[in-house]
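Slide 14.
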Amino acid sequence: MKKVVATTMATLLFGLSFPVKTFALPNNTEELESKIVKDFNVKKYSGKIIDRDPNLNLSEEKQGQLPNQGQSLAERIGKNNLIPVDISLWQGDPINWKDGVELDTSENDPELRRAFDEANFEGDGRDSGLQAPSGSQGKIVVTFKDKSFIEVKDQKIYVFPHVTASSYANVPKNAVTTTFFLGEESKVKSGLNEQVGNAEHPIPFQTFKIKPGTNIYDFQLPTNKNIFDNISAMPADDSYSDLKWEPENYIVSENNKSFTARAIKSYKVKFEFKAYDSDKGHEEINSLPQELMDKMPKDLKVKKGDSFEATKPENFIETIKDKNGEITKVYEWTFAGWNPTKFLKVEKDEKISGTWKRKQATSAKPTADNVTEGDKAIKGQGIAGSIIKIKLDNKTVEAKVSDTGNWEAKLDRGLNKDEKVIITQVEKGKKGSEQVELTVAKKENNKPSPKPESNPQPNPQPNPNPKPEQKPSPKPRPRTGNIFPKLKNKDYNKNSIEVKTYLAKSKINDNKNKSLRHIINVLSGEYEIVKDGVSQKKRMDVVPVIKNDRLMLPLRSLAEMIGAKVEWDSQTRIATFTNNALVAKIQIDGNEIVLSNGKVIKMDSKPLNINGRILVSLSNVGNVFGLTNGNTKDGIDQDIEWDDANKTVTINLKK
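Slide 15: predicted structure.
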């Protein structure tokens, strides 16, 4: 019998390992098995040697049973074999609690590994709604299929906002490290410190760890600003402007994680203004009225290389009042133009000069009723509060226009036939109007006096032999051509019934009686409607405006005057005009008229919004519906006619 190291033999024969111990090697296998069981305190079960007593740690009633018989899965796995694992996630993301527990890798039993995979994992009430960048500690309960469970303690979850400082180490694995650079002529101030960027080699300024797919322009930091506003980069000096971050795709990904602030070189465009008095031989005026200056464009910056063209200002009415609030002067300011008119490419600081012309406003031309010989009063219409001056016999008679727009001048004698009467109107602060000349008409006598009989017979003698009265023979009627072959000509020698025939008035009236006219005073907003010789006066709720030499009228007033129907959609801000099946739509923030026939017409004057009223160009809309336009001096009758002397516009519609 030989002596060997027992551990070596046991390992070779049975795959067992024991403390080093020597013994005499038996002559056969059975003696060897008995020796190992006896000397190393192992047990033999079902003819095989096992490495521990199956009855260890079992209650007395369970001892002697098969190995693991009566044990739960939790008991078999053991709580020390479940290891807590930290979970990192973004705020608001769902929590998978299974990620917070790990089975010890030394556990090789397939049955127990399957039991772990099929177990239910439940948290303790912690969630991802609140940020926890430093970690929130708790437990996870692992429940197996046999209802046994193990509580895994000291487990942590870390919850991060979608934009997180780069200093945190436990952020989710998919966090994108995003860097913000200072590029061309950009800078950031922090207290007394200032960091300036570089065009060729942008300087890293801040780095964040960001959840993929986050729009960093929309995401609000705890400062209630987005990340760009929080950095607060600005142009390095006044010669640069329009700082922006590039690229302009602000959704973070692994392919879009670097953003650079850049400022653009710009130049100043300074505005200057000159003014001249047209009433005083173009004498220079030192300054514009403050109210007009407030409307003028202010100095601005234009990007290097861009073109620039100044917008033509609207004409202006200046009203000067005394200390009592009475109007003393009314001036019309007309913009003459810019010099230069345009910069094709701005490469340096520039100046642009605008020229204005001023003249005292002219009063509107009054209207006067016809006068006949013998009249001792003259009547008419004018602007409320104005003075009407009537020149007669080298004398001047004055009358004031009432609040209703009517006036009447009393004369000290009756008017003579063919006498000339000169009438002008003077509005407060304005020059006198163009003259209205009336010629006194002859007074007609509509009551004819009866003619006396020649050689009257006061007592006529009766005729002693009166002849019977004879009926006169009917006069032959002229024959007329019969243009209706199915009707027979009338025999006029036979008794007949009188039939009266009438012609429709509209067929025989003059063209003027078939028209509808609107006469608009552009300075006061009053207008006159003349239809079939009957006149009616109205006033718009907004005074018309002249913009780019175009008369702008309120929507509904304009529609009424051109015979169209208008509808206003406050949601889309679209005005729809309809006339004779043609529909025209105007989006008041643009400069186009879209027609129902598919055509699109550009307007030279965009709509205006004044005191909540929308004003659009009369000529632009009128032309769409076939109305022509011109002025009273061109000698051509147009549908829309401008009278510069009286500052009136007449719209003629054929009915």
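Speaker note: The chain has a mean pLDDT of 81.
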